[in-house]
Design goal:
Strand content: 15-25%
Mean pLDDT: 94
Structural class: alpha+beta
CATH architecture of one domain: 3-Layer(aba) Sandwich
CATH topology of one domain: Rossmann fold
Strand order of the largest sheet: 17-16-22-21-20-18-19
Shape: elongated
Largest sheet: 7 strands, mixed
CATH class of one domain: Alpha Beta
Length: about 525
């Protein structure tokens, strides 16, 4: 594989790579603001300037410059090598590049950093980007000097509402144009542009338009400073108090890899962020997915209920067991949930087999809008997993409704509460006694005689199979809220009361079983949605 040297480190590269892309791939940082691996090259921030050494026998390209001479208190002519932006310079085999080891590149970065901060308001205490701002990081790393300009800085518009999700502060903006490129290249909606020149530059929305496409929060996410802020996250939390868990978005069947950021002090989730995964979502998430974390804390079932009244855990399990014991296996049905993990669904399947239930159905959230980037019409993260676990035997909700109307079901043991066709909610319970393991309020929980509060996807480790058949793990983020437990734990407790044996005892055993029961393996040949 061809390679070049960057500060005496060998960097392999692929055809078409630039210096910064090849370095990024192997984890070597070249300072930058405007470059992003998923966007086109702008080369306008000049923070990634590097010195490229000429081949032996060829003189370096030199520039005539003026440098201040402290001794004589005047500018004197000097020469310096012409520096190149690493984001734009193609890598070549045998190339020798100096970044941190070049005094000229180091000095240039310090000057760029100072220029960017000349008119910056430095309002870090009230800026949402504080704690994860490249201006802060690079000031310490590449400048670390006081501001020399004593003139009044240029003032620009603040708190400009770009649309329903984004607020813009032009004084903080460094004109990297990442947001412009996200709208034009990812969302295919070139609604943002740059106006004016020099220190009067600012980002603007096209006349008569709003920033209101499916990926507006990506414009905020890629912003390296605090110019763009999310109206949802704005002034809600300080990032240094937050911790992150590696999760999978459950907003739709794409199953984007994500980070879930939460405050361990109050066990509250504050935001989702995309986690890089070349095979699924690359660097991105849609707005609906990024805001889906809100369901973790909204409309939750947090205590057991019997006939609408709160009861103890033991009482709820006892009532559920009484219902199941008095049921005929031929008229007992299991309802799986495409919203829940493989572990929860397999646990319910195993209990259904143990009590002899012969009917298996599945449901989930209703479909929603889709696009050809990431958003799937299927708003359920684990439909493929449910169908695989059931061996294709699980029937859709419409068949369940028909069976209820025909009186073929006496007891329904259900996971979840949402149904894919809300118009069919009136068919529940249809004369059947329903025992529901529900995370949220909804049609199934409302129709159930017994409701057991199931933890959300953020409160338990779980695995999901996305629309391409890729098996993905999602880590627990926060502790179960209220008196909720992971659904498979309720199943385990219910099995004990029923005095039936399940083929697993620990969560790890259940996960292993769910992987070997038919869930698909990763499909490297599947084309990744989205793109650079």
């Amino acid at each position: 594989m061809p390679s070049f040297k960057l500060d005496d480190k060998d960097i392999p590269f692929e055809a078409g790579d630039t210096i910064i892309r090849a370095a990024h791939r192997v984890g070597v940082d070249v300072p930058h603001y405007c470059w992003h691996p998923g966007l086109s090259v702008a080369a306008n921030c000049r923070m990634c300037l590097v010195e490229i050494m000429p081949p032996p026998g060829r003189p370096a390209m030199m520039l005539d410059v003026l440098a201040w001479d402290d001794l004589h208190q005047t500018y004197v002519p000097q020469k310096k090598p012409k520096l190149q932006p690493a984001c734009q310079q193609a890598a070549a085999d045998g190339m020798v590049v100096k970044s941190q080891s070049s005094e000229h590149a180091v000095k240039a970065r310090s000057a760029v950093q100072e220029l960017l901060l000349l008119n910056h308001p430095v309002d870090c205490p009230i800026c949402d980007q504080a704690g994860e701002c490249r201006l802060q990081d690079y000031w310490l790393e590449h400048q670390a000097s006081k501001k020399r300009m004593r003139d009044e800085p240029v003032h620009k518009p603040k708190g400009v509402v770009f649309g329903p999700t984004i607020v813009y502060d032009a004084e903080r903006c460094i004109m990297c144009t990442r947001c412009v490129r996200v709208s034009a290249e990812l969302a295919k909606d070139p609604v943002l542009s740059m106006r004016e020149r020099g220190n009067l530059n600012e980002i603007t929305v096209a006349p008569g338009r709003q920033l209101d496409h499916n990926y507006t929060l990506m414009t905020e996410y890629v912003c390296p400073v605090g110019a763009l802020t999310s109206s949802d996250f704005r002034f809600k939390a300080r990032v240094w108090f937050l911790r992150s868990a590696r999760t999978t978005c459950v907003g739709c069947a794409t199953g984007c890899s994500s980070f879930t950021d939460f405050d361990p002090r109050n066990q509250h989730v504050y935001r989702y962020r995309p986690r890089e995964n070349a095979a699924v979502n690359k660097y991105w998430m849609c707005d609906e997915g990024m805001l889906d974390y809100q369901r973790i804390h909204q409309n939750r079932v947090l205590e057991p209920r019997y006939k609408g009244e709160g009861v103890s855990d033991a009482a709820a399990l006892g009532k559920a067991a009484d219902i199941l014991k008095g049921a005929s296996p031929q008229k007992t049905a299991i309802l799986l949930s495409a919203q829940h993990s493989n572990e929860d669904n397999l646990a319910l399947l195993d209990l259904g087999k143990a009590i002899g239930a012969l009917q298996i159905y599945y449901t989930g959230r209703p479909p929603g809008p889709s696009d050809d980037i990431l958003m799937s019409e299927d708003r359920n993260p684990n439909r493929a997993g449910v169908l695989a676990l059931s061996g294709g035997k699980a029937k859709p909700l419409a068949d369940l409704v028909t069976a209820l109307k025909d009186g073929k079901i006496g007891v329904l043991l259900a996971l979840g509460s949402a149904i894919e066709n809300p118009s069919q909610a009136s068919a529940l319970p249809g004369g059947a006694q329903v025992v529901a393991l529900s995370t949220h309020e909804g049609p199934i929980a409302a129709a159930a005689a017994v409701v057991l509060p199931a933890s959300s996807w953020a409160e338990a480790d779980g695995t999901f199979v996305n629309r391409t058949g890729m098996y993905q793990e999602s880590d627990r983020v926060i502790a179960p809220q209220g008196r909720s437990r992971p659904a498979f734990r309720w199943v385990q407790e219910l099995a004990k009361v029923l005095a039936v044996n399940l083929p697993w005892k620990k969560a790890a055993e259940l996960r292993t079983a769910s992987q070997s029961t038919g869930a698909a393996a990763p499909s490297p040949s599947a084309p990744p949605p989205g793109g650079e």
